[in-house]
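Changelog note: in this version the structure field was regenerated for every chain. One regenerated record is shown below for reference.
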Amino acid sequence: MTDFTDRLQEQLDIELQTIEGNGEAPLQTALQSIPVVEKVLAELRNYIHHYSFENTSEEIRFYKEVEPGFHARLIYYVRLYQIETCKPEGGNDELVNYYKNELKRIYQFFTDNKELYRYYRTGAVFLDETYFLPHGATSQLTVEEYTCILDTQFCTTQGYKMAKILAYEKLQKYLSNALEQLTSTPQYAFPFKGRFKWTGPKVALTEYLYGLVYSGMINNGQVQVKELAELLQFIFDIDLGNYYRSRQEMYTRKKTAQYLELMLKRYQEGMNEADEKYRHS
């Protein structure tokens, strides 16, 4: 079993790392990752349905460590997708409150399952046969999130909760980092702060933001959308709100580069006008 699950884990890690390395927004990363994890889980489920465990120790290891480790990836990306699609439209204050509420939900889950959480954190093993065997006293699956894709031969109740613990710990880090980025003050040395205020539509600056990112002309293309957005917002004293969602809305427009085209038009007009003045001077 170990050889198969190790290869499957390596395959999943490579695919997810490739997706994460594309530098997409969290929502797009989640959307691309979910089917990848679902496919691997289906392979694992099919394998286990035709596999006979060598001993109880191997069986416990599967239900306590192996399956929850894979399943946690699915829970993480599904919850990340849900969080990103439900983000408020407002500025930083609304997002800060939103992320704090999501963290409270995670803390509540840990509190509601404090015995298992403590069991996991302390590395205890004395209840393994009860918690992590299909015929154990707590093996019957309850009606919870994601259990529709499970069966008792593939997952136990406590194994499922272990997967949620692993996923929520990772989600906790994501939300904490998002909060830190929203509440920290950018450390830019800019002597003209307040002198340059963006007076055009927010969506225009968002277009320019993505134009700069996709052009690959900053740091040889190694620039994150969020970092550049923070800089532009700081310089021009503006809150762009949810610029990831704004990009999605750009796709629905007849002209996806409306303001970039306007900038090019004005640039050409300005160059022609300057040339005319030079000719007649």
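Spot check on this record: Residues 202-279 form one domain. Residues 139-145 have pLDDT under 50 and may be disordered.
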